[in-house]
Structure formats: C-alpha cells, structure tokens
C-alpha cells in the first residue's frame, strides 16, 4: 500500500478498507495545466451541465482562432461576441476579471504557483469575481495536484463520508474540517476516495 493510503488507513480504518477495495484510483490528466486557463474553464462551467459548458467554452475558443484566449485578447472581445458564445452578463464580468487578474499578476503562472502555498493561492484567487474557495480547492487538487487539500464544503466529500461511516446526516463543514486533521498530509487522496464512495452503488460502514 502506498504511503498516503497507509496513512489514511491507520487514521480511519473504514476509509482505509474502502481504499483497499477500490484501488488503484486512476486520475485523468487535467485539461489545462495553467491556472489562468483552468479558472476560465471553471467560470464557464459554473451552474451548467458539463456538456453545455463545454459547448460554450468551445465557441469562445472558436471565436479566438481555436485557442483559449490570452488575457489581452479576452479583454478586447466585445460583449456581443461573448454573449453569442452563450455567456451571461455575470459570467462575462467574471471572465473579464479572470483575464484582468492574469494580466496584473494576481493569477500566477503554473511555475510561480508551484512556489506558493495553498493558502497563498486561496487568498489570491478568491479575490477574483465569481471565484470562491471551492473553485480554488478544485484547482489545487486537479490542476496543481496538491496533496493536502480538504474541501469541507464539497457535497460529494461530505456525502461520501456519511455513506461510508453509516451516518444519518452529512457532517457539517466545521465537523469535517476537524475529522480531516487525521488524514493530513494526504487529505487530497482522502477526498478523492470519498468522492468515489459518494458515487459507489453501495459502501460498507465497517472495515473488512
């Protein structure tokens, strides 16, 4: 068993048993590796079905020469172009703020982001219109592959913990934050398996 799974199993035998039954966990390569691109995609996906969001984002790329627009290009696009892609007024404002924050250095390059702490990135990126802590946590886990991110507000993580441990209700974020201390420094791995537990047809409430 790898180090992260062994640590989690020691801290939580129930989750450890689930990990043992469902290994290996295959992680898809992120579509975008740069924080700026990932945040544009995240804004496009907010409150939309994935297929609709992909279509809208695809139209944006088509309007910009089949490429994700750089900050200057995006800021120069007229409202009519963004509206024709399918973006609402709120999303247009958020996209432009992402571009502006990339242009002024608030959004770091991937190389720079790798030298910043999780909390530094949360503080920087949640200053962007339409970007909350959960969005940044997803970027940390899936784009930057940070090992110790614990998204306590995520429905799937809370639901997976509830189902796996046979609880009547999901733990509240504050309670889940306290629970997560035991999984550190591998809380991202714990979250990934709790998402899987939330989607599993059935889970056991006790280790094998």
Structural description of this entry:
- Helix 1 packs antiparallel against helix 2 (13-22).
- It is built from 13 helices and no strands.
- The two termini are 16 Å apart.
- The chain folds into two domains: 3-28 and 150-199, Endonuclease Iii, domain 2 (Orthogonal Bundle), CATH 1.10.1670.40; 35-143, Hypothetical protein, domain 2 (Endonuclease III, domain 1), CATH 1.10.340.30.
- The protein has helices spanning 3-11, 13-22, 35-45, 50-63, 71-76, 79-85, 89-103, 110-113, 118-125, 133-143, 155-164, 173-180, 187-199.
- It is 61% helix and 0% strand.
- It is an all-alpha fold.
- The chain is elongated and about 55 Å long.
- The mean pLDDT is 93.
Topology, please?
Layout: H1 3-11, H2 13-22, H3 35-45, H4 50-63, H5 71-76, H6 79-85, H7 89-103, H8 110-113, H9 118-125, H10 133-143, H11 155-164, H12 173-180, H13 187-199
Short overview:
This protein has 208 residues and is mainly alpha-helical. The protein has helices at residues 3-11, 13-22, 35-45, 50-63, 71-76, 79-85, 89-103, 110-113, 118-125, 133-143, 155-164, 173-180, 187-199. The protein has 13 helices and no strands.
Query: Mean pLDDT, nearest integer?
Result: 93
CATH class value of the largest domain: Mainly Alpha
Whole-number count of domains: 2
Compressed to H and E, one letter per element, the order equals HHHHHHHHHHHHH
Count of DSSP-assigned helices: 13
- Rg, nearest Å: 19 Å
**Low-confidence runs of at least 5 consecutive residues:** none
The CATH homologous superfamily of the largest domain: Hypothetical protein, domain 2
Mass-distribution shape? elongated
User: Could you say which structural class the secondary elements and strand pairing correspond to?
Assistant: mainly alpha
Number of strands: 0
What is the share of helical residues?
Answer: 55-70%
- Write the CATH architecture name of the largest domain: Orthogonal Bundle
Reported by name, the CATH topology of the largest domain is: Endonuclease III, domain 1
Largest sheet: none
Q: What share of the residues does DSSP label as strand, in percent?
A: under 5%
End-to-end Cα distance:
16 Å
